[in-house]
Design goal:
By secondary structure, the protein is an alpha/beta fold. The protein is built from ten helices and ten strands. The protein has helices at about 10-20, 35-40, 55-65, 85-95, 115, 150-155, 170-175, 180-185, 190-195, 215-225; strands at about 5, 10, 30, 45-50, 70-75, 100-110, 125, 130-135, 160-170, 200-205. The chain has a four-stranded mixed β-sheet, sandwiched between helices. The chain has a two-stranded antiparallel ribbon with strand order 1-2. Strands 3-4 form a two-stranded parallel sheet. It is globular, with a radius of gyration of 18 Å.
Length: about 230
């Protein structure tokens, strides 16, 4: 989070992008490390310290949301310095417009067979109303009548899940208290907990591909992209 990107910490760029979302009234960074707090507060970024023992980012978010006056809470990963603020707004609108939906997220169409078979690139399947049916690390759906994955990919039926979440505050607090579910444990995907408990989660499609920074090579790639 504190690796420098054009002279500023990586997470600082993500914060600036989140601030550009038109439907977000307040942006704070939730952290459990005082180094993040000290570096960001020196740049004028509000930071809320949380407990260090949270098993996931969603649990950390729930701790912050507990004292928040807002009814809708957006969860942005700190390693998304190229975050598209319009995706945040689209996900907020989708949640706010449907009272039966407790959370929303985003997806991007995949056409590269290597991406589709990559277990680190999570795929999402949606119903006819655009709500999530399932999240998986597998190449899904399986196109039975395609000769191979390249032919299946050409049909444009695969979608990458972008790890941005919008929650109704009351559901977020409820979610954090739920035990992990069987499919969540198998796939190691905490969003499956929502579906396994029978709740509706909307998924908006976007052109934003979601470029997270997980390695030094990713950081260099993002830096080059920003320079261009």
């Amino acid at each position: 989070m504190l690796r420098l990107l054009h002279g500023k910490p990586l997470v600082y760029h993500t914060y600036l992008r989140a601030c550009r979302a038109k439907l977000v009234g307040r942006v704070v960074v939730a952290a459990d490390d005082t180094r993040i707090k000290d570096n960001l507060e020196a740049l004028g970024v509000p930071v809320i310290m949380t407990r260090p023992d949270h098993p996931s980012g969603t649990d950390r978010l729930a701790e912050v949301a507990l004292e928040a006056p807002e009814d809708i809470i957006v969860n942005v990963q700190g390693d998304e310095p190229l975050l598209d603020p319009e995706v945040v707004d689209a996900a907020v609108i989708r949640l706010a417009s449907d009272p039966e939906v407790v959370a929303s997220t985003a997806c991007h169409r995949l056409t590269d067979p290597d991406d589709i078979r990559n277990p680190n690139m999570v795929k999402v399947l949606r119903d006819l109303e655009g709500n999530a049916l399932y999240f998986t690390r597998a190449a899904a759906p399986h196109v039975r009548d395609a000769a191979d994955l390249s032919e299946a990919a050409a049909m444009q039926v695969y979608y990458k899940h972008i790890g941005l979440y919008v929650y109704r505050k009351d559901f977020l607090l409820q979610y954090a208290a739920m035990p992990a579910t069987p499919l969540e444990k198998l796939e190691k995907l905490e969003q499956l907990r929502i579906l396994e408990h029978g709740y509706k989660m909307a998924v908006v499609e976007t052109d934003y591909t979601g470029i997270g920074v997980d390695t030094p090579e990713d950081l260099k790639r993002v830096a080059r992209f920003m320079e261009s």
